[in-house]
Amino acid sequence: MTFDPVLPPLVLAAVAAVLAILRALSVWPAITAGGWAPLRWFLVTAAMALLLVDAARPAAGLRSEARPPSSTRGGENIYLVVDRSADSAIPDVDGRPRIAGIRDDIQAVIETNPGARFALISFADRPAVDWPLSADTFSLRPVVSALEPAPGDNADQVNASAAATVLRYQLISAAQQYPGSDSLVYYFGSGAPQSTAPQGQFDVGRIDGGQVFGYGSDVLGEQRLRGVADDLGVGMSTRTPGQPLPTTAGPSESPPADGVVGERRDEFYWLLTLVASGLLLVEIGWSVRDVRRARSTAREVLT
């Protein structure tokens, strides 16, 4: 079993120590209260312990995969930046909305980069981190499959570089957490061809590669996408439905050097979260029952 905590280990240990002290202080009142109180204390404590273990991101069943070394620590950090504005709902050549082609291309990027960590950042009128940097591609795929255009007609207010600030901070955080790992950015969008809003720049610092995938044939959109590609220092390719990924977007085809082997982590934080949620739901049910009883008692006293 391995761990890849979402916080520095010392910070996570400090949080665990504080929670342990607080729960220890509350154990005696729970015991003296009698009834179901000791069991409720135990269930809440168990849920908190599971969430702490969850934050450490345990994984098991590591599978070795031969691949070219990309960094001193191993495993690239790949950022998927997706334009979910109204332009992504436009039907493409095969009649499907443009976002369907984007979803297909993202899945292909995931397939062609085994062992990498992925983060998903989407934007319309504003950016959001839909998936934090993680090697758990098993859980990422359903998130990608659920990508849809953002609600509302926002095409005229889109900044094609809206995700730049969020991406920059994500890159800074990853550089501290995974020193030496390569960072790649894949951008999927139309270039905001209908937008009249001011357009920014992708000033995110140095990255190690990636690609801008352009959708649609609008001249203004293509110009803006080429500007994004220039800012990032990566290539650009115009996409059509069913077209294979450009070779520059895939992994290196050279054989592994010095027998370098990448590890693919099978994380099960979702299972711990599910169990903890169940325990907390039981406590919520008890709390709701207590509130109803208290209100019922108050009514009887008043009458």
TrEMBL record:
TM segment ranges: 39-57, 268-288
Domain of life: Bacteria
Biased composition (Polar residues): 237-251
Region (Disordered) location: 235-259
SUPFAM superfamilies: vWA-like
Gene3D superfamilies named among the record's database cross-references: von Willebrand factor, type A domain
Keyword line: Membrane, Transmembrane, Transmembrane helix
Protein name listed in UniProt: VWFA domain-containing protein
